[in-house]
Amino acid sequence: MSAESSIPKKNFLVRILTMNTSNQKSGRSLPLWRQLLLQLLTLAIGFEVMFPILYIITLSLSSKTERPSQLQLIPQEISFIGYQQVLTRPTANPVSFLELLRNSFMLSIGVGLVALLIAVTAAYAFSRFQFKARQILMVLVFIPLLMPAVGLSTPLYLLMNSIHVNDCGNGVTAISPFFDCAANANSSLIFNLRDSLLGVGIAMISGALPFAVWNLKGYLDTIPHELEEAAAIDGADSNQVFFLIVLPLAIPQLAVTFFLGFIGHWQEFALPWLFLTKPENYTLSMTLYNMTGQYASSIPWNRFAAMAVIVALPVAIIYIALQKYITGGLTTGAVKG
User: Fold this and answer.
1) Strand partners, 173
2) Which of 79, 118, 127, 164 could form a disulfide with 220 if both were Cys (CB 3.0 to 4.6 A apart)?
3) What ranges do the domains of the chain cover?
4) Whole-number Å distance between alpha carbons of 152 and 196
5) Dihedral of alpha carbons 165, 166, 169, 174, sign
6) Which residues of 238-257 are buried (b: 16+ CB within 10 A; e: fewer)?
7) DSSP per-residue string spanning 248-310
């Protein structure tokens, strides 16, 4: 009896389930049963992610303001009245949709760019320079990441609220807390840093910097020092090395840092809600919250869903625009060493 005939043959079902579906001659094989299991798991995760998105889109395309009595993932009608009402008059406040959009873009993009500019210079200093208390400062930068952002809102509120400009009369202007009007002067408030987009932006930058510094510092550590040394030998000064060598190599990670920050800044609600009181300074996330009433039956659900879709669109557009750099930043840093 030959050796081949002594080996028991597998039945047809076992051969099908254990066949290699990876199409690779070497490396780890992927049996069919495992491939099917992975596909089912992927479909389950995809359905879980897409379920709320499909529900909100279906709700936004309805002409009825009440919430559906049954679950609907496929639109029963195609009506853009909710989008039309949101774009025409988002809320009862005297503010247009374009003003809300401008405020949100000014905060998210402005905070993202300023935080990125400060963070990349700080991260480069931590990565390349050796100075006293370097480790201590890195720990101090990391500590705010351990605290919830809402926990820092009270000191930020008090700090921003202490800086305001007063009209003391007779052409005299005082900037508090550096200068105050006379005790008998009839002063009036001109500008309060806390109740402004500038004040909210400064507060948001303080919360965005720790993560940006740590994220960029880890990536800059992977850039070979020899590139900078070669540029210095060729006569490049420190600024040229930073702007012409380091920054172009760090573009993928800069895009990742900006995108992750943009998501948080675009959806930021707590700080603007605590700081701002004027409707003309409101953001889209604040307006979305203003659509909610005391009871679920009082919420215009089609307009609420339409506003939610509109708020989510810029994040998707920014991701598509930076997708090449984001993918490169997420993968390149993982293989460098």
Assistant:
1) 167
2) 127
3) 3-60, 92-163+193-335
4) 18
5) negative
6) eeebbeebbeebbebbbbbb
7) HHTHHHHHHHHHHHHHHHHT--HHHHHH---GGG--HHHHHHHT--SSGGGS-HHHHHHHHHH
Assign domain 92-163+193-335 to its CATH superfamily. MetI-like (1.10.3720.10)
Q: pLDDT tens digits, residue range 67-91?
A: 777 777 777 888 899 899 899 888 8
Report pLDDT digits (tens) over 12-67. 566 665 666 656 555 566 677 777 888 899 999 999 888 888 888 988 888 888 77
| Residues facing residue 172 across a β-bridge | 169
Query: What are the backbone angles phi and psi of residue 216, rounded to the nearest 5°?
Result: -75, -35
Sheet of 188-192, strand order: 172-176, 164-169, 188-192
Q: Strands, DSSP E only, in the chain?
A: 164-169, 172-176, 188-192
Show the CA angle centred on residue 165, arms to residues 162 and 167, nearest 5°.
135
Three-class secondary structure of residue 31 per DSSP: strand
Residue 218 has pLDDT above 50, yes or no: yes
- The answer, yes or no, to whether the previous bond of 68 is cis (omega within 30 of 0) is no
**Helix (H) and strand (E) counts in the chain:** 16, 3
Extract the tokens encoding 247.
Answer: 């920054």
Longest dimension (CA), the chain: 116
pLDDT digits (tens, 9 = 90+) for 265-308: 898 888 999 999 998 999 999 988 888 766 666 778 888 899 99
Q: Is 175 helix (H, G, I), strand (E, B) or coil?
A: strand
User: Closest by alpha carbon to 139, among 129, 130, 151, 126?
Assistant: 126
